[in-house]
Amino acid sequence: MSDKLILEVFVDLDSDNISELGTEIGGLVMIPFSGTARGEIFNGIILPGGVDTQQENVNGVRHLSARYMLEGIDKTGEKCKIFIENNGYFTEGGVPNPFKTVPTFRTDSKALAPYLHRNAFRGEGYPSGDQVVIKIFEILTDG
């Protein structure tokens, strides 16, 4: 059984406002972004304040944590917001295409809360220049 695509997030990276820090235990970069989201459960925009924080340790392992708020319309036509925290890891040698993530959600949507707060999801990121498409899937299980 294949997993079910529920949402695509179209990220526009703000490469003019990247913050970087180098330390003896590894580097850190914060990349602000904007964009839109669409799918069977939600359509809307990324609110200002979205940021992808990437921390690299001395062994070259990079942890990414993107945190952002969506605002738009849920599958029932109601206005709502969805907070997403998307975490992933990769090693030196560049960002894989696609890279894998584990998203978690919080929402004020009465229709989406029981679904997003209780099910398991996975993400795939497809980078291309200053843009990234994040595909979010519900993990389906047999039985």
Strand content: over 45%
User: How much helix, percentage-wise, in residues?
Assistant: under 10%
Q: How many helices does DSSP assign?
A: 1
- Assign the structural class, choosing from mainly alpha, mainly beta, alpha/beta, alpha+beta, or little secondary structure: mainly beta
| SSE string, helices as H and strands as E | EEEEEEEEHEE
Name the poorly predicted regions. Answer: none
Instruction: State the major sheet.
Output: 10 strands, antiparallel
Architecture blueprint of SSEs:
Layout: E1 4-13, E2 19-23, E3 26-38, E4 42-46, E5 50-56, E6 61-74, E7 79-91, E8 99-107, H1 113-116, E9 121-128, E10 131-138
Antiparallel strand pairs: 1-3, 1-10, 2-3, 3-4, 3-5, 4-6, 5-6, 6-7, 7-8, 8-9, 9-10
Structural features, described:
- With 143 residues, the protein is mainly beta.
- It has one domain (4-138): Porin (Beta Barrel).
- Helices cover 3% and strands 64% of the residues.
- The chain has one helix and ten strands.
- Strands 1, 2, 3, 4, 5, 6, 7, 8, 9 and 10 form a ten-stranded antiparallel β-sheet that branches.
- A hairpin with a 3-residue loop joins strand 3 and strand 4.
- The longest helix has 4 residues, at 113-116.
- The chain is globular, with a radius of gyration of 16 Å.
